Model the fold of this input.
Amino acid sequence: MSAMVKTFRARDARSALAAVKAALGPDAVILSTQEVSGGLFRKAEIEVTAALDPAAPARQRVARAPLSTPKPAPVRHGAARYAVPPPPAPDDAPGPSLIAEELIALRGAVENVRSQLKQQALAAPAEDVRFPAPVMELFEHLIARGLDEGLAEDLLRLAAGAHGTQPALMWRAVRELLAERLIPSRAPWMPGPRRAIALIGPTGVGKTTTLAKIAARALMESRLKVALITVDTYRIGAAEQVARYGSMMNVPTRVAHTEKELARALEFSRTADLVLIDTAGRSKPDDIARQAQLLRSAPGVDLYLCLSAATGAREVAAAAARYAPLKPSRLIFTKLDEADGPASLVSALGPVGRPIVCVTDGQRVPEDIHALTANELVGLVAGDLQLGRG
Done:
């Protein structure tokens, strides 16, 4: 008779081990213990995989020691690493010699179970059985929209937990869950108190073009007084590009290399309703930190993080994580017209869960920049789905 292998999840290690004992008895063997991150949509849980071989003699059923002594290996989830500490050892732990014998028996049992699981995996069909067929339609649609697979799975499991696996109800729940996280904010070109905004983000996301679009909308639609500043002295021709935009829109432009020069440029722009600051793209943590020090030296400057939806979910998440220490107050997503799926932008909300002020979808100034409502953001990510089309 082959070993019985089951996986249990619970909110903490104690609860998970209690579930193991309740289902498999005190003779269960713990094969693995890991923390499963909840990602964006749920809390982290402890996952325990345990086995019980009914044919094994009592001595080989390592009753209590394996439940408390194995040290779980760190597991990787996304960009972070976690190590789940083992539960405390019981007061009546066996002596050293007995533990050694039991560990030998445990290794043999684990290897036997692993061999069986490997054979079963090789013999299993190569189809995805994460969800029933009707739910897989939703899953595949979300992936096609560019959503990370792990986030898509989390969304659907949460929706199923609340409404069952009826596709129409699940889809409505998915949209509601997305609406809770896709928070819109007032467009930066709208009238309001005087403000200074620095656009930060990786190289190539279109910060300078986005700055020009915001400036043009502020001038033409809201009749605001605008000033431009660039601290991008890294790229060749960057200052000239900002100056050219300033000349075309007839707005003052300044270049700042140092904290003192930035302070003077902001003082020069004190009569402007909206001051827009262009920055160089950075990727190394030290460079990002130096840029942050320069921008934070000027009180009252808000940081808006620009991320390209065209880079895909994984890179969007990685870029957001690199800039998260700067604590940007708002998000801008660019190049939606170049993205395979616009839902990749959801991956940024884990590292930087901030409101979204606007998105861009082309090179035209100022036409290709848009401030979206909550419903429009959900529609952008989720798209239209005709259920039962197959």
